[in-house]
Structures are given as structure tokens and as C-alpha cells.
Specification:
228 residues; Rossmann fold; Arc Repressor Mutant, subunit A; 5-stranded parallel β-sheet; 12 strands; CheY-like_superfamily; OmpR/PhoB-type_DNA-bd; transcription; transcription cis-regulatory region binding
């Protein structure tokens, strides 16, 4: 499943795109103009389908504005069919250009190909259990929204998430996250995990499992999906 952002002022077309792409298992957010795109959308989106001829900020202007912030494929979907327009769209950072009228199956196939080929999650970001970890920023996002964790909570989350499926004792987690210079002890890990679980539960995810008598582990994707 991917997160798709569709931007078009044609309400009927947006409804069609949303239904078709959701049947492919994607989560789709629809906006009616490029000016509505905010940074949280760009953090969340795995692919952007962008019209060109929209009131206010047109698609080309939008692409120029967001390209430096959006590390995902941008697919233009537009009635502008001139070669110069196509070259402009691709030249300013678009990854693909599909002209209207278009075949829905072709659009779905192109989006699937971009998602499959590009794997556009940035080098310093990884996704685990529906959460995006920005390793450079040391922050966690859920669908583009910041999950507010303390420094220690983030450290535990990152450590477990990057070693999904492996079980670690509280002592191992404490040493890995806080080091020998830590001012507390491994009992702090229990409290941190309690707080992490409460915060992630509000986001609809529960990826940390207690392994009784040993410690904790971050569930692998297939374990989360199967509910084990």
C-alpha cells in the first residue's frame, strides 16, 4: 500500500481516481488545488498525481514549489498535450506526464511502476509499521504528522524499529540508547516503553511487543498484519 496525493480541480475526476487507486490498496488524499498542498502532505505522500491547469497556482508552479521538499514521484495528469508542455513538466521535476483523456488502467500501471522502481523513501528515512523515521532529524511521523516523543523515547523506538523482529533485554536497550554514561538505569526503559505505547496507540499502531522474561521487540510487518 502507498499513500497517494491527487490534486485536481475536477471533482468527478478526483472521485474516479480515489476509487480506482483505493481498489489497488492505496490510501488516497484529494486536494482541489496545488495551493492547498502543505509540508505534512509531502512528508506523507509516496506519489503525487498533479493536474496542470488549475485556478490560482497551476500544476507547473506547484511542482516548482514542492519539488525540493517532495522526495516522491510526481505524475502530471493534464489536458495540455503540446510537446513544449510535456518537456516543461519533465524539466521542472515531474517524473511522468499523462495527457487527458487517459486510460485509467495505464495511470494505475504507471503509478505502480514508479512505486516499485523508485522506492522513494529518502535515504535518511525508513518506514516501519506505518511510521516514518527521519534518522537525520531524529523524529517520527505518522501520515506526515509529527509524533511527539522525548529524546529517550525516540531512541528506543528507532533502535527497536531498525532491528524489527529481534528481541532485546532492557539492559541491552538501555546500553544501546543511553550508553554507559546514562544517568538512570534499565528500569527507565520500562517507563519509556509504557509512554511510547500510549503515544503510538493514539496513532493507531502498536508495534512493540513484550517478550516475557526477556524484554521487548518491534514486530515485523508480516507479524503486525497477521495480528501475531
Amino acid at each position: 500500500m502507498a499513500n497517494i496525493l491527487a490534486v485536481d480541480d475536477d471533482e468527478d475526476l478526483c472521485t474516479l481516481l480515489k476509487r480506482a487507486l483505493e481498489r489497488d490498496g492505496h490510501q488516497v488524499t484529494v486536494l482541489k488545488s496545488g495551493g492547498e498542498i502543505r509540508e505534512q502532505h509531502l512528508r506523507w505522500a509516496d506519489c503525487i498525481v498533479l493536474d496542470v491547469m488549475m485556478p490560482g497556482e497551476d500544476g507547473f508552479e506547484t511542482c516548482r514549489r514542492i519539488r525540493g521538499l517532495a522526495d516522491c514521484p510526481i505524475v502530471f495528469l493534464t489536458a495540455k498535450t503540446e510537446e513544449a508542455d510535456i518537456l516543461t513538466g519533465l524539466g521542472i521535476g515531474g517524473d511522468d506526464y499523462l495527457t487527458k483523456p487517459f486510460r485509467l488502467g495505464e495511470l494505475r500501471a504507471r503509478i505502480a511502476a514508479h512505486l516499485r522502481r523508485e522506492q522513494r523513501i529518502p535515504q535518511n528515512r525508513v518506514r516501519r509499521a506505518g511510521l516514518d523515521f527521519d534518522l537525520g532529524e531524529r523524529a517520527v511521523y505518522r501520515q506526515g504528522n509529527l509524533v511527539r516523543l522525548t529524546k529517550g523515547e525516540y531512541g528506543i523506538c528507532e533502535y527497536l524499529a531498525l532491528h524489527a523482529g529481534q528481541t532485546f533485554s532492557k539492559e541491552q536497550i538501555y546500553e544501546a540508547v543511553f550508553g554507559w554514561e546514562g544517568t538512570s538505569d534499565e528500569s527507565a526503559v520500562t517507563e519509556h516503553v509504557k509512554n511510547i505505547r500510549a503515544k503510538l496507540k493514539k496513532e493507531g499502531v502498536s508495534p512493540i511487543e513484550t517478550v516475557w522474561g526477556i524484554g521487548y521487540r518491534w514486530l515485523r510487518e508480516e507479524q503486525i498484519e497477521s495480528g501475531s
